[in-house]
Amino acid sequence: SVAYNSGERSENEDDVEITTPKEIYMVSDGTGWTAEHSVNAALGQFEHCLIDRGCSVNTHLFSGIDDVERLMEIIKQAAKEGAMLIYTLADFYLAESAKKACELWGVPSTDILSPITEAIASHIGVSPSGLPRGAPGRKIPLGEEYFSRIEAIEFTIKQDDGALPQNLYKADIVLVGVSRTGKTPLSIYLAQKGYKVANVPIVMGVDLPKTLFHIDPEKIFGLTINPVVLQTIRRSRAKSLGFSSDMKGTYSEMDHVRKELGIAARIYAHNPVWPVIEVTGKAIEETAAVVLRLYHDKKQKCLMPRISKRY
Amino acid sequence: SVAYNSGERSENEDDVEITTPKEIYMVSDGTGWTAEHSVNAALGQFEHCLIDRGCSVNTHLFSGIDDVERLMEIIKQAAKEGAMLIYTLADFYLAESAKKACELWGVPSTDILSPITEAIASHIGVSPSGLPRGAPGRKIPLGEEYFSRIEAIEFTIKQDDGALPQNLYKADIVLVGVSRTGKTPLSIYLAQKGYKVANVPIVMGVDLPKTLFHIDPEKIFGLTINPVVLQTIRRSRAKSLGFSSDMKGTYSEMDHVRKELGIAARIYAHNPVWPVIEVTGKAIEETAAVVLRLYHDKKQKCLMPRISKRY
Ligand SMILES: Nc1ncnc2c1ncn2[C@@H]1O[C@H](COP(=O)(O)O)[C@@H](O)[C@H]1O
Ligand SMILES: Nc1ncnc2c1ncn2[C@@H]1O[C@H](COP(=O)(O)O)[C@@H](O)[C@H]1O
Ligand SMILES: [Mg+2]
Ligand SMILES: [Mg+2]
Tell me: the pLDDT tens digits for B261-305? Predict the structure, then answer.
């Protein structure tokens, strides 16, 4: 029902700014991370046009907004700047006020909490509390899950880059791969989700720790990557680390890169239980999704691959 | 328009299971993390009743669903289990198919991507691509932001727990606090968002590194916590580390805890530029929101505190 631009660049490719950026305001009574995460995903749908490709967007996150006065100030400012508003407000009155004020002042708005909350409410037959996460009296119970997540993060930090191989048996997940396949950021991403992760580098001329072959092989995952992409990444890494051109040579030279990936491929072939995950062109969270899908499938052996949780 | 239960426990408190758990299916053509994050936030609205408080919920995440066959299988299974469906599907045809199939088979459903995408589309005047994140041809450019986020994570790991004080000047954010105020998980959370973080412990009888007082004080944040809560956390920590009862004594004894917090308070008083952040009862992401709000306010000195980004 809306007419869109094609989003294509204008004839004059030399224009520095083709359009003035559009503003998106995000407001939450909590941290704002839910709004930010959702807006980020939605903006993925406009990648063909963002930044210097014809349109650009500025987002502005306002967190901890739990009173109507500050809320109204923000909406007024949004109206002035021609911004749209995307909000998560647990309090029914506040959410309603945001909606009405936006209508009144001509600010396009989207409530991204209420639709899910209402759908869940009617599904489980319980009414929502309407209390924002920081509401007085709402104590966050420092439950088991909280402590085990922190433990996972601390464990994962200590196990980075092949450290403490004697502890590999304690890990939930062990990642194996050559340098710059993203083992460290992937380990940390998974740790944040509560998994104890260890990562073990494959380096030409260095033996893998023996313990790697004594632990449960079902929890080991190999990472692989396209050699050309890996070389590009290693070059940028070598530059940022200020490697001498000698070291840079061995580390990011194509011949060396291919040989090291060849070694990795042979190790994986000798250990066919380890799934081999292609990371080329994947964002860290995408590789994490693949790892966890496989991890949970192995545990459940169920027909329809899924990750289940109890609340 | 929906009649809800009060969600209160039944008379018989000994019942192990008061109600059968309600099922929530989450489906994404991508990682599923957006759906999981949003559902998690929404479930916060039912905390008064979840788990053993009268109702319980099982979530099931199906990621990487980008064909109609698997989608229909999942929806059929949802219908069988009496589950509801929450989905993010970038492809218009797939999203529409999900909606129709859910109507047909009586599965309550909520599309959480389309409303935001459509609102943004009409705001910026550009049509969405309809391409899921993993679509062939959609190459993730290993841009500057990607590398700088990974660098932030690697930096932060190396700076954990007061390591390498000579590098404090390279950090964007420096966290100071006594043991078990959540410095490590908070540092990692911020690192994932692209900030280089160092954390420095305050330990009775140990001097703070001199470099801490030579770097820009505007980037230093002190953490503080209620002594009773800290003692509880330390006790559980000491137990999980298997501390001898002697060490446990000094570490988690109330007298020791209070003294150490007193030292921290005096250090903060001597450095009034450092904001002091109360972490008691806050989840890591909540403390992160407070830190980043202050961090960006200091930089912008603007009237309306916000975190802005360009896309
Ligand atoms: N544990 C929780 N309890 C209650 N409400 C929550 C919880 N987590 C998130 N929310 C609400 O969900 C929305 C998104 O949260 P946030 O991601 O912190 O901005 C806000 O309206 C919060 O108040
Ligand atoms: N960078 C991106 N480009 C295109 N679509 C995206 C991007 N990131 C997320 N999405 C879409 O947003 C929804 C949520 O993504 P996810 O959190 O990976 O499940 C899915 O439908 C994805 O296809
Ligand atoms: Mg590494
Ligand atoms: Mg620590």
Answer: 999 999 999 999 999 999 999 999 999 999 999 999 988 776 688
Alpha carbon A4 to chain centroid, angstroms = 30
CA distance B17 to B55: 9
Nearest by Cα to A286 from A183, A160, A186, A149? A186
Name the percent of chain A in helix, strand, coil, to the closest 5.
50, 15, 35
- So what's the ipTM on this one? 0.93
Q: Are B37 and B74 in contact (CB under 8 A)?
A: no
Residue A12, φ and ψ in degrees, nearest 5: -80, 90
C-alpha to C-alpha distance for B167 and A186, rounded to whole angstroms? 24
Nearest to A127 by CA among B19, B83, B46, B53: B46
CB under 8 A, 24+ apart: contacts of A76-80: A76/A105, A77/A25, A77/B304, A78/A23, A78/A25, A78/A102, A78/A105, A78/A107, A79/A105, A79/A106, A79/A107
Quick one: which atom of ligand 1 is closest to the CA of A140? 1
| DSSP strand pairing (B220-224 vs A84-88) | unpaired
Residue type, A311: Y
- What is the distance in angstroms between the Cα of B227 and the nearest Cα belonging to chain A? 15
How far apart (Å, rounded) are the C-alpha atoms in residues B17 and A299? 25
CB B165 within 8 A of CB B200: yes
Distance CA B71, CA B28 (A): 9
Handedness of CA B149, B87, A118, B12 (dihedral sign): negative
Which residues of chain B make contact with A64, given a CB cutoff of 8 A?
Answer: 289-290, 293
pLDDT digits (tens, 9 = 90+) for A248-257: 668 889 999 9
Q: CB–CB of B31 and A285 under 8 A?
A: yes
Q: How many CB atoms lie within 10 A of CB A92?
A: 12
Cβ pair A115:B116 closer than 8 A: no
